């Protein structure tokens, strides 16, 4: 038994599916329905951690990575960007590496983890590991999971350890667009002796996670939840009204801000008559409530942030109708607006956090826009980073640079 696991109730090796080394012939074509990572373009989770709103965005990146997972054994892995926000601010980034074995099982080849503090600075990289260096390649999803099966998604005690036992199969769960059949339920043991409850669902992959009061649940996935046609008029009106409320909120033009809120609220009532993903609906309700409260209290900082949140929530709904790269361009612009809010409030940590967020979102759409436009955008990002990277912390200049990125050169995604 590996060091550090002696006191844990781990399963006997006879029950584990991850003991035999995998064979990889076509590793980047990940077709396992319970972990279809090469098909999922963008995924949103919603939940609560430490009693605070928790929101994640997972994006399949275009690049792959070659990993030597065993001496002389190399595999090409898909790369997925996991982005976690806690209470509206960047909490964690992880670049995850996956490959599918010839039998249909999906294997985890490591992750680069960056945990951030409330000032937008990297606080820790604990949890980072790479197969073949820190530990072995591990199975994250069996090819055909059955009740009682056990596999380790991570197997490096002291860095990352997860042992999952399948408790239930063929379960029906409530999804963003209705019931989803064929889900599995697992119980995950960690190296501190605690457990998480996990659900994986066809077409979605990881669907739900709960650990000691903290919860994360699927809010939306595309293309699984994508819809044909353009976004409904009410959703477009909602998004436009939220954008239009940002500047009035910042300037204290409460008449215009209130009008934007009324327009957004009416549009939301009209749009939600359709079947809308319930967890996204909860986030929109929370954002509109926060905007109403902030306007009522004449609080410019809170009103500006809430208007940005309403616009972000509207973009999440628009993900069902528009390419992910377009949505990420919109998110990028909205975080530039958030810089204006935080700069006006004198919140250096907030501005630094916003800049970091924009830098990571940039990586999602970088390969889909014209190279010349990307070069210009990157120049503005570098200038923006410099305003909060030294002791002067020039928030006035940061705001000026952010204004240049509110409409990032009117970029449109181009065909790859």
Describe this structure in words.
The protein has 416 residues and is α+β, with helices and mostly antiparallel strands. It has two domains: 13-222, YmcC-like fold (Beta Barrel); 233-404, no CATH class. Helices cover 34% and strands 32% of the residues. Strands 1, 2, 3, 4, 5, 6, 7, 8, 9, 10, 11, 12, 13 and 14 form a 14-stranded antiparallel β-sheet that branches. The longest helix has 21 residues, at 324-344. It is globular, with a radius of gyration of 22 Å. The termini are far apart.
Domain module tally: 2
> Low-confidence segments, ≥5 residues, pLDDT <50?
none
Q: Characterize the largest beta sheet: strand count, sense, and whether it forms a barrel.
A: 14 strands, antiparallel
Task: Quickly count the helices.
Answer: 8
General form: globular
Count of beta strands: 14
Secondary structure: helix percent: 25-40%
Secondary-structure element order, as H and E?
Answer: EEEEEEEEEEEEEEHHHHHHHH
- By CATH reckoning, the class of the largest domain would read Mainly Beta
Stated plainly, the CATH topology of the largest domain is called YmcC-like fold
- Cα distance, first to last residue? 48 Å
- What share of residues are in beta strands? 25-35%
Brief rundown of the structure:
The chain is 34% helix and 32% strand. By secondary structure, the chain is of the alpha+beta class.
Task: List the topology elements.
Blueprint: E1 42-49, E2 52-70, E3 73-86, E4 89-100, E5 106-116, E6 122-124, E7 129-130, E8 138-141, E9 150-156, E10 160-175, E11 178-190, E12 195-201, E13 205-211, E14 214-222, H1 233-251, H2 254-271, H3 278-296, H4 300-318, H5 324-344, H6 348-365, H7 371-387, H8 395-404
Antiparallel strand pairs: 1-2, 1-14, 2-3, 3-4, 4-5, 5-6, 5-7, 5-8, 9-10, 10-11, 11-12, 12-13, 13-14
């Amino acid at each position: 038994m590996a060091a550090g696991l002696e006191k844990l109730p781990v399963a006997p090796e006879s029950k584990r599916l991850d003991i035999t080394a995998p064979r990889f012939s076509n590793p980047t074509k990940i077709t396992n329905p319970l972990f279809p990572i090469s098909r999922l373009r963008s995924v949103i989770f919603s939940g609560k951690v430490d009693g605070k709103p928790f929101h994640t965005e997972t994006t399949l990146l275009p690049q792959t990575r070659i990993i030597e997972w065993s001496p002389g054994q190399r595999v090409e892995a898909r790369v997925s960007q996991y982005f976690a926000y806690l209470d509206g601010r960047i909490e964690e980034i992880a670049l995850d590496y996956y490959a599918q074995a010839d039998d249909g099982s999906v294997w985890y080849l490591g992750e680069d983890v960056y945990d951030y503090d409330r000032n937008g600075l990297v606080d820790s990289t604990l949890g980072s590991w790479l197969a073949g260096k820190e530990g072995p390649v591990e199975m994250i999803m069996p090819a055909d999971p059955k009740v009682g099966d056990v596999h380790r998604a991570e197997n490096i005690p002291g860095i990352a350890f997860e042992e999952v036992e399948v408790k239930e199969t063929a379960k029906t769960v409530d999804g963003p667009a209705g019931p989803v059949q064929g889900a599995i339920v697992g119980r995950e043991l960690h190296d501190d002796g605690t457990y998480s409850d996990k659900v994986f669902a066809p077409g979605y992959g990881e669907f739900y996670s709960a650990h000691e009061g903290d919860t994360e649940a699927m809010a939306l996935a595309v293309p699984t939840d994508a819809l044909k046609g353009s976004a409904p008029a009410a959703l477009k009106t909602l998004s436009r009204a939220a954008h239009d409320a940002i500047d009035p909120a910042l300037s204290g033009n409460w008449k215009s801000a209130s009008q934007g809120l009324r327009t957004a609220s009416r549009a939301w009532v009209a749009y939600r008559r359709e079947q809308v993903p319930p967890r996204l609906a909860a986030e929109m309700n929370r954002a509109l409530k926060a905007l109403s409260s902030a306007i009522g209290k004449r609080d410019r900082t809170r009103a500006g942030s809430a208007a940005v949140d309403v616009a972000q929530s509207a973009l999440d709904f628009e993900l069902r109708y528009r390419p992910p790269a377009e949505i990420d361009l919109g998110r990028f612009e909205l975080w530039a607006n958030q810089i204006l809010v935080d700069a006006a409030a004198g919140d250096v940590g907030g501005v630094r956090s916003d800049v970091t967020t924009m830098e990571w979102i940039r990586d999602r759409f970088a390969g889909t826009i014209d190279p010349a436009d990307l070069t210009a955008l990157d120049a503005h990002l570098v200038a923006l980073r410099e305003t909060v990277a030294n002791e002067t912390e020039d928030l006035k200049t940061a705001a000026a640079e952010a204004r240049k990125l509110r409409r990032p050169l009117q970029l449109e995604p181009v065909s790859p």
